[in-house]
Amino acid sequence: RAQAAFARQELTTVRVQDPRVQNEGSWNSYVDYKIFLHTNSKAFTAKTSCVRRRYREFVWLRRQLQKNAGLVPVPELPGKSTFFVGSTDEFIEKRRQGLQQFLEKVVQNVVLLSDSRLHLFLQSQLSVPEMEACVQGRGTQTVSEAILRYAMSNCGWAQEEEPRP
């Protein structure tokens, strides 16, 4: 009997992995992270997804969640360190862990989970302006269409291959 109850439990695993420096060596270089999501939750359109996001997009997401969550506290992001003692790798790893903890807390929260921006952030590769347009109904597709289109496009799985030049 306990087994059956466990089987129905909704589980969402979110991992922030594989930090990668983009535009390395240029003044506009930044790090992005792979966000892998695996879930059996009815809240999500796609049951597995994989996207790349940078810190700036996490900051946008947190701001949006705060705006819409009312009194529900939104988890903190790891700090935006301008002064850091230690290696860059160490900093990136600390940030990766912080971003993962942030997302783990967010997906456990029913109120935050109802925000469609979160779903687009985790399950589409739309840019911030595109996510905004989509949520406000100004995009060419609905939120679930955007997510399904991304899921079907196989980009979510082709992440391990090197991008073609």
Automatic annotation (TrEMBL):
Keywords: Cytoplasm, Endosome, Lipid-binding, Membrane, Protein transport, Transport. GO terms for biological process: intracellular protein transport; vesicle organization. GO terms for cellular component: endosome. Its main location: cytoplasm. CDD domains: PX_SNX10. It is a peripheral membrane protein. GO terms for molecular function: phosphatidylinositol phosphate binding. Belongs to the sorting nexin family. This is SNX11 protein. The lineage of its organism: Eukaryota, Metazoa, Chordata, Craniata, Vertebrata.
